[in-house]
Design brief:
Blueprint: E1 6-12, H1 36-48, E2 53-57, H2 71-75, H3 89-95, E3 100-106, H4 112-125, E4 130-135, H5 140-145, H6 154-174, E5 181-184, E6 189-191, E7 201-202, E8 207-208, E9 223-226, H7 231-240, E10 243-246, H8 251-267, E11 276-285, H9 289-300, H10 305-316, H11 338-345, H12 353-359, E12 368-371, H13 373-387, E13 391-395, H14 401-416, H15 429-434, H16 452-462
Parallel strand pairs: 1-2, 1-13, 2-3, 3-4, 4-9, 9-10, 10-11, 11-12, 11-13
Antiparallel strand pairs: 5-6, 7-8
């Protein structure tokens, strides 16, 4: 039996997502992002292809680094307009039975107490098929528009994120005990008050004294996704994430990342094989090599050069509009996505501005695989064997065509080789992915917050003693 390959669909509640300009292609339907039937139809297609889930990205803010303006972002619909991703969970769940629904939400722009209720609600509505992609955000425009003046420093954002997830673990895992909800009609007791606890969190960034507002959802804490690839991002992912997404432009970059992150996971006391790593790719395929290549050439004619550099500038924090197309990308320290700069300026290839724009024009910062099903299956299996990655986070060039092509051509070829699932496992998203129970395992740091009364006693003992004025 060949090693099983896993697929996620990478999308966003916007136009074009990471293929700027391809919204103009006559078969692209990303402009229907506002319509629930678009999302439900796509979800049914992905479930037919036994995808682990649909991973819905998000940004708060807009891309205004390129040429010092948001003109090209607005002109080319480069992730603006963009709608809220969490509201898609319920309609997607209604249209499917198994598909996981990964929702991106930032620890920088929403208080953990209110977010905990929104996330628990989604887990209830989907019967335990929700995951949370934990991001710290990278757009200055987002921070300014929620009254923060500007982004915190990169490393400080992860310090905030660490406390943020601590609050959520306390709320999800410790506030309501198992069996707290009785629904005892005879004695008219819905919930046993003795089994519902205040979390009494008082930290550096958040004060949350009280009770979680929602009763425990099917997974308590939804499946945890994370995409940070900088030093602090890797440390955070190794400690918390169950699924990790990476955008690696080359196989050698990916191999190094996977090896390092698995070592970090083991050092954190967790099983590195129980954390799935997905790498970003775009697949363009058809019945024959000739048809696939013709499709790729057709798509390339719609790529927006300015739209591509709008993304590249926003992700890196570097205004690529100030350089000539033949200039080589240099490493510059910024407050944006550190891993982007490391992979491009510090990788095994030198990139000119023009090459960067062309490379990122379809599918963002992952490679584009073009070919007939047999060739694509060979490539995917080779990447899995050579890098130890678990699967692929599949972006689209044109939607829903790109996803339909993968489901119609690539999935059957991989299944024929014994390298892809033929059915879903039962249960919640966590159970489908890992085959264990619906809750986070005891090896996860969330386990330390399940006895909230013990947590409060421990924190009280560790708190610094304050001397009196006369002391």
């Amino acid at each position: 039996m060949a090693r099983q390959i896993r697929f996620n669909a990478f999308d966003m509640n916007c136009v074009g997502h990471q293929s700027p300009g391809l919204w103009a292609h006559p078969r692209d339907k990303s402009w229907k992002y506002k319509d629930l039937d678009y999302w439900q139809d796509l979800a049914r297609t992905l479930e037919q292809g036994i995808f682990d889930g649909i991973f819905i990205a998000d940004v708060i803010g807009y891309y205004d680094v390129y040429k010092g303006s948001n003109y090209h972002a607005i002109h080319q619909a480069a992730q603006i307009p963009v709608n809220d991703p969490l509201q898609l969970a319920a309609p997607i769940a209604l249209a499917t039975k198994h598909l996981g629904i990964g929702i991106t939400a930032s620890t920088s722009f929403e208080h953990p107490y209110t977010f905990a209720r929104r996330l628990a609600t989604a887990d209830h509505h989907t019967k335990g098929r929700v995951g949370w992609n934990i991001v710290t955000s990278y757009l200055e425009s987002g921070a300014k528009n929620v009254g923060q003046g500007g982004l915190r420093g990169h490393d400080n954002r992860y310090e905030v994120a660490s406390e943020y997830v601590e609050v959520l673990y306390k709320l999800f895992e410790g506030s309501w005990e198992e069996g707290a909800v009785l629904r005892d009609r005879e004695n008219r007791i819905f919930t046993d008050p003795s089994k519902v606890h205040e979390i009494a969190h008082k930290g550096k960034y958040f004060d949350v004294p009280g009770y979680h507002l929602s009763e425990p959802s099917p997974q308590r804490t939804p499946v945890l996704y994370q995409a940070g690839a900088s030093g602090p991002g890797k440390t955070f992912a190794a400690g918390h994430a169950e699924c990790i997404f990476v955008a690696a432009p080359t196989k050698s970059v990916l191999k190094g990342y996977v090896a390092e992150i698995r070592e970090r996971i083991a050092a954190a006391g967790r099983d590195p094989k129980k954390v799935f790593i997905y790498t970003l790719v775009t697949i363009i395929t058809d019945e024959t090599e000739e048809k696939a290549q013709a499709k790729f050439e057709e798509y390339k004619r719609y790529v927006s050069y300015d739209g591509s550099l709008t993304f590249m500038s926003g992700w890196s924090g570097i205004d690529f509009g100030q350089y000539a197309p033949t200039d080589v990308v240099e490493r510059i320290e910024t407050n944006a996505i550190h891993s982007f700069v490391e992979h491009i300026a510090g990788g095994d290839k030198s990139w000119t501005i023009d090459e960067l724009a062309q490379f990122g024009g379809i599918g963002g910062m992952g490679p584009v695989f073009v070919g007939a099903p047999e060739r694509i299956a060979d490539i995917l299996q080779e990447w899995v064997e050579d890098t130890d990655v678990d699967g692929f986070n599949i972006a689209y060039a044109v939607t829903p065509d790109s996803f339909e092509d993968v489901v119609g051509h690539i999935v059957p070829e991989l299944q024929k080789r014994g390298a892809y699932p033929t059915a879903y496992k039962p249960g919640t998203l966590r159970e489908k992915l890992f085959g264990d129970g619906p809750y986070l395992p005891k090896s996860h740091p969330a386990d330390g917050y399940r006895d909230i009364e013990a947590v409060k006693r421990r924190e009280a003992e560790q708190a610094p003693t304050l001397k009196s004025v006369n002391g």
